Amino acid sequence: MQTAQLNRKRQKVPTLESGAAKLLLELTDANVNMDKIIRLVEMSPSIAARLVAISNSAWSNPVAPVTSIAEACNRLGLNVVRTTTIALAIGQSFDHKRCPSFDAERFWCTSMIGSNLASELAPTVNVEPNTARTAALLHNIGLLWLADIMPSETDESLNIANGSPAHTIGECLKNTTGSDRQEASLYLYDAWQLPEALTGGWAESDSQSLASLIPLCESMATEIYAETPLEDSSCPADNGPMCTAYLEQTRQLANIRELAAALF
Predict the structure, then answer these.
(1) What is the pLDDT of residues 204-249, one digit of tens each?
(2) Rg for the chain (alpha carbons), in Å?
(3) How far is the C-alpha of 205 from the C-alpha of 80, rounded, in Å?
(4) Is 167 left (phi over 0), alpha (psi -120 to 50) or beta?
(5) Cβ neighbours, 10 Å, residue 160
(6) Which of 97, 103, 114, 149 is in Cβ range 3.0-4.6 Å of 221 for a Cys bridge?
């Protein structure tokens, strides 16, 4: 796919639901509390409805029906509400169904695992955990957009990358769409005027610690999703916090899969 055609496609950047950019910024704030999150979610009817639905799903398994946004948020817990709200605020803007090789369950599972890892490991590199969580969760959002606007080309790229370890998804996307995941993600952030702090995982920034942490968490998330044992993973054996985080997310894998299925 030629770059000129990609540029024409870029004119079709989806519009975020009103207030979504503010919601993303607030959710990155280390001092935001549940009461404020509830008020923010109430301003986004589609997200509010999905959170209530998830809190009533088999994944949540409530004793009694959950009938309010406050109940839903308190039932799910602060970290789950943060992660799912960000994923919904962004994810509902795209339609990947015309790209058969795009695995939505894998995409969101690895994104959520990566965000959990980044949040847990952020203090070890002097990064604010909620900023790390959001940056990791949205690290590959460009792939979701490409699956929406260039489904055939993205499908071809995914097939090639999945069938040959010698080819990375970034290289394949560059050849077929004219853009890789990071370039597409940054284009979306610029178009949506999202906070620069949220691009620290891939853009040139002062947060070099974050820029190195996010790809590492992405790699570990991919291994956890593939059920790779810790001893066979890329996780350094002498890094206690990293090994602990890896094992915890491995234990949570089934729950994360169920949550992704309930969300998307």
Answers:
(1) 544 457 888 888 999 999 999 999 999 999 898 899 999 999 999 9
(2) 18
(3) 28
(4) beta
(5) 19
(6) 114
Identify the CA nearest to 54 among candidates 72, 40, 70: 72
The CA distance from 47 to 88, in Å, is: 6
Whether domain 95-264 has CATH 1.10.3210.10: the reply is yes
| pLDDT score, position 115 | 95
Q: Is the per-residue pLDDT at 107 higher than 90?
A: yes
Q: Structure tokens of 97?
A: 């169904």
Domain locations along the chain: 17-93, 95-264
CA distance 252 to 264: 18
Mean pLDDT value across the chain: 86
Q: Which residue in 239, 29, 28 sits closest to 124, CA to CA?
A: 239
Cβ contacts of 221 within 8 Å, gap of 6 or more: 109, 110, 111, 113, 114, 117, 249
Using N-to-C axis directions, what is the helix angle for 253-263 and 78-91, rounded to 10°? 40
pTM of the model: 0.88
The pLDDT tens digits for 112-128 are 999 999 999 999 988 88
Residue type at position 89: A
Asked if 245 contacts 117 with a C-beta cutoff of 8 angstroms, the reply is yes
Structure tokens at 38: 């509830």
**Which residues 6+ apart lie within 8 Å of 117 measured at CB?**
136, 217, 220, 221, 245, 246, 249
Q: Which two tokens stand for residue 90?
A: 């962004």
Rounded CA separation 74/226 (Å): 31
